Amino acid sequence: MSPAMRIGATGFGLIAVCYGFARFAFGLFLPEIDGELHLGPSLSGLISGGSFAGYCIAIIASALLTERFGARAVAVGAALVAALGMAGIALAPTPLFLAIAVMLAGSSTGLASPPMAAAVAAAVRKSRQDVTNTFINAGTSAGVALSGPIALAIAGQWRLAFGAFAAVALVLAVAAMIALPDARGDRRAGGFPPIGGTMARLIAASFLMGAASTALWSFGGKLVSQQMGLGTAGSSLLWIFIGAGGIAGAWAGTLVNRFGLDPVHRVFLGLMAASILAVGSGVAGDVVPLVGGAVFGAAYVMLTGVYLVWGTNALPQRPATGLMVGFLTIAVGQTAGAPVFGMLLAGQGPGTAVACFAAVALLSGVFRSGASPSVTSNAPMSPITGCR
To answer: Whole-prediction pTM value?
Structure first.
């Protein structure tokens, strides 16, 4: 198996567990958790924000730790932290305990991404790196898509689901230990990179997109379960559609190579805004919210792939740090956005909340990378291997 395939498959699985299960599945199971622990929308938003805050701290630490200790060690640590956090969610007796466990589980996602970027930079041929990175990034959608059928199959047993997710995370820790290289990147530069030009625009764009995305990541399940009248089944279906749509994000590297960062960025921000309105408006019946979920999944994973390529290309000698900048500010936006959406939902209702957050998504498109389109070929490219 080639390095691109080995690292791509392992990274895809790790990201699926850490993002799809440890971080975003909380939004899927939120109606059931709320029913048992009596959280309410404002506290739910604060807990979701805590998950994103844990991510912010962890992704900074991960970039530094990867440059010091290597990709393999940090990736294994990410899987173990995910397992511990999800086990805590499964056992949570009180909202406070739950909040701590959600924050710990959410921090695993911050730990997972930088070592994968370093592993790709060290072991994958340059021409295949963007495609391999964005394929790994699309693992988020696989985890989200799988969590939906699991929620349906176990009929509301959210504690059992998070216990099973914790066991899967332990398996991925072993896989990362076996498959990933001990890559560190260039440690001579050190510290946080200079902020200016393309990096400043990356920070602004990713912050706004991250804030907008919390409308569905944190509250999509609640919106759909209320508006479709299907309870847990409605939110599970939404998660399946989000995850299935997100598989399209594996092609982010190919689209960026063909059309350039800025056009892909703007198109998928527009689709994200439309999807937030489709899911949250409550005026279009049962089908449109689910289609909106699929569009949201594709848009979100595609946009995170855009920011991944933007950051790693801006800092080619420090790929873990380049990825960290964009992904950190996505999470900072999510940390700020989740409580604000929760307060708007409680105070003004879903119509106002989703309209405001769709506008925030569109506002992100004001910021441009300044990169020229890089058209490599008109031939299709495999998102797994980067081969034509």
So the answer is: 0.77
